[in-house]
Amino acid sequence: AQSVTQPDIHITVSEGASLELRCNYSYGATPYLFWYVQSPGQGLQLLLKYFSGDTLVQGIKGFEAEFKRSQSSFNLRKPSVHWSDAAEYFCAVGSNDYKLSFGAGTTVTVRA
Amino acid sequence: NAGVTQTPKFQVLKTGQSMTLQCAQDMNHEYMSWYRQDPGMGLRLIHYSVGAGITDQGEVPNGYNVSRSTTEDFPLRLLSAAPSQTSVYFCASSFQGAGGYTFGSGTRLTVV
Which of B73, B80, B38 is nearest to B59 (CA)? Predict the structure, then answer.
């Protein structure tokens, strides 16, 4: 069975500071990995995805994530956060690209 | 393009009532899924479809039915609503192999 753990429920970061959100997954083979962002009252938007190849993946809005097979991790990073990055972030894993398991989410608060 | 359209946006049901949540996409996506989102639990897969006429159960299918008679539409039916089905429901679609869902804006359902 596949599963995702996002260890941090809530993170507060200052505007302009760097951000890293952790994601650990459980899956036997090479998984399909995704990061989504959800603004309040909205649906989810895909930030980036990893299927194979280069383990450092670039996404939209200046985000990147690194797949580390040895650590079963797919952490999301941004060098300098903006106030508009305040949202909830979800990591997801799948054995294919249509049947996904989501983590519980990490809420990011950005302080001025 | 409208993307993924969900209706209604809000609904209040009484215990035991039935209803259908509508989902339509205009992107000719093969894959469609229904998720429910509950606080602290992320998104959980209810049912999914890999094409017209093909559906399968996800993680939490009990109490819900789906059908996929056309590529565009994927309605979710609640057979006899229960308070435990109070949640936010998201429909999502994806192009085969592209990876990463496009989500609708959600239906907030309250069962009293």
Answer: B38
